[in-house]
Predict the 3D structure of the following.
Amino acid sequence: MKKYIGFLFFSFVLTQSFCQTSKDKSSDGLLDSLSIALQNGKYSNVDAVVISQNGKVCYEKYFNGFTRDSLHDSRSSFKSITGLLIGIAVDKGYIKNIHQRAYSFFPEYQNYNNWDNRKDSITIQNLLEMKSGYNCEEWNGTIDCEAEMSSSNDWIKFCLDVPLKNDPGKVWAYSSINTMILGGIIANASKMTVTRFADKFLFKPLGIINYRWSKDPVGHEMTSGSFYTLPTDMIKIGELMLNKGSFQGKKVISEKWVNEAAQRITKIESFSNVRVSKNTTAIPQPTYYGYTWYNEEIVTNKFKYNVVFASGNGGQYIMMVSELNLVISFTGNSYNSSRSKLPFDILIKYILAHFDNERHGC
């Protein structure tokens, strides 16, 4: 009898332990599956995935020789950070408003090549929206001015000299020219280097201390990309956006600016990140552009969430899903490839599917 009772007790403990383990595996099953997929090389183009919910990092994986202390090129996802720096400059009065004319900030340049009187009407808002009219277009790779700019001595002067193709404010044409000029405006308006301005008003308040700028021969920072940072610090930028300009209770940028930056201002014609990712679960929706930030809905038969995000060549992303209080950062290595959109497949198949269940969280 004692042996039988002991057997029943052991069976009960074992069953309880198994049920608890099964429950834990069920609640975290999709993130476990993501880890296995990443480790098995299904997404070999991904260098890092970091997930935060409610301000707490709960998932952090690194691959291809990268670690949590490895700086990674953020590529064009940094354009979105440049947009935040403009917002801070407006908040602090260095810039009166985004309707100010861009060329008025550059008294040091007296003579321009390819001058066009229409350039006098280019505003900061035009630059933020990628509607400056310059004859550059990197989205489809038709006129990539960045490579030529990189070989010049003064990147700001090069950008200001680029000829116009369209009237300012009319046509959306994605180009690094726009955010390079925004960087020059920040420096000249504040009388600081962009490095000092960003460090003082954005990075230090967020506890971001480990990074590396790329600069031209005369010292202008690259504000369109080639800024090296940590995926965990990309999360901090996402937290700032998610919390409407506050970080850990401290106001860093105005809620007004954050809301404006995330607007659906311009529909990018015939384009959807979900479609390019080749995810078969979601119904592709159009991608929109605001003030250097993107916006796209993720729609499946089971859930629908709006994602605000920064995006860079190769698979560099900062994503925010406000309904789930969720921030995700990706870094990757699929440069100039449609595989750079595979983080959207990961987002849909594993991350949103996991957090969509209210019982599943960090």
About this structure: The chain has twelve helices and twelve strands. The first strand starts at residue 46 and ends at 53. The longest helix spans residues 2-27.
